[in-house]
Fold this protein.
Amino acid sequence: MWGNFIDDEKSGKGKQYYIDGILEYEGNFLNNKYNGKGIEYHFNGNLKYVGEFLNGKYNGKGKKYYYYYYYNKQTRLQFEGIYLDGEKYSGIGYDYKGNEEYEIKNGNGFMKIYDDYDRLIFAGEFLNNIRNGKGKEYHTNGKLKYETEYLNGKRNGKGKEYNHEESLIFDGEYLNDKKNGKAKEYYYNGNLKFEGEYLNGNINGKVKIYHENGRLKFEGVYLNGKKNGKAKEYYENNRLMFEGEYLNGIENGKAKKYHENGLLEFDGEYLNGNKNGKAKEYFKNGRLMFEGEYLNGIENGKVKIYHENGRLEFEGEYLNGKKNGIVKEYFDNGILKFVGEYLKGEENGKAKRYYYDGELMFDGEYRNGIKWNGKELKSSDSDKLDIQYVYIEGNRIILK
């Protein structure tokens, strides 16, 4: 920085430089801001603006230039006229070749807006220096981003939105810059993604949502951007995945869920997104896996659990997701494995435990999941000799 300073503030004539030493501005300052006549330069050192400033903004007569040299390596004029509070107000805009492209008067008419690297940001109609009427916005790669109507500077009315490759991704309506009313949305491959309605930017009303392969994914109702009411959801293979009800975006009420192969996975109820009440659950092979009750998403009450081959694995009660009370457990060959008592998920009380072949393993009492009192029989795999143990208050003693 070079120039005049008053109480450490830039005032009067001076120069300001970019960090790399390239001249950024030369002209008048007032209270640390560009003020009065001045010249501004692009990051590459090329001329950017010649004219008048007020409080750091273009204001008054001025000329704006493109960032790059075009044609014969000459600086090209982008706009010449009058600025008001940093915005073009009256004057003529030029294209890269120097041809007159548009004219605005008193902030009214068609205008083009560029960023500091000559990339077109917006082209459309203005009223009192505010976007009003038809207009187009662009991605930084030059591809069309929005094509819509504006009111008081905001997207308003029918419009379309495009991705960086200029493929259509939204076709619908806007209100105050937010999606509003009927709309369709699309994937990058052109397949339909969404068909329904918006309200103040949120999905609202009957809706259909699709997988990228074009098959239906969701069919139901949204309220204020959340799933609400009866709904159906589908896998990419078009098979039903979920059939039930939502409340404020989470499962609530009777519902059925299905495996991807089309067979039933869950039949029961939800409360606030958790399984609640009587329910049945099934393996992918269609066989029953669970039959019992849930409370707030965890097993609670009488329960039956099955092996995948269809044989009973567990029969008893759960309390707060843990085995509790008298239960029976079975091997997958149908042989009894355990009969006894549980307390808060641990063996507790009188019990018998069996080997896979049905031979008795233990007959006695558990305490907090530990064999406490009773007899245990173990067989040696090598000589088939029986070894007996006795438990006394958790201590194991060999009998033979």
